[in-house]
Amino acid sequence: MMKCPRCKSTDVAVTVRNGNYSKFNGRRFQYSDYSALTCCGCGWPWRSKAKGVLALPDWSPEAEARYRAAVGVESGMQGEETDAV
Ligand SMILES: [Zn+2]
Prior knowledge:
Blueprint: E1 12-16, E2 19-21, E3 29-31, E4 35-39, E5 45-48, H1 61-71
Antiparallel strand pairs: 1-4, 2-3, 4-5
The structure holds zinc ion (ZN).
Zinc ion binds at residues 4, 6-7, 9, 39, 41-42, 44.
């Protein structure tokens, strides 16, 4: 069971599975051993290649609703995948 490294919640969803959309690669998908995860309990984003990732659900409207309720944002994601400057 994967747990958030910050709040220890097990309510974790996969935002990008086995890869990333690097800004250094023209935002094209690039395969990686690592998947991008986000904690729906506290909003913490991180990357992992642990076997437990396979059992995690993909990001969903339900996950996003819990994430927004927990983090208190109206829209958008935190973390490295945003265009925020
Ligand atoms: Zn957390």
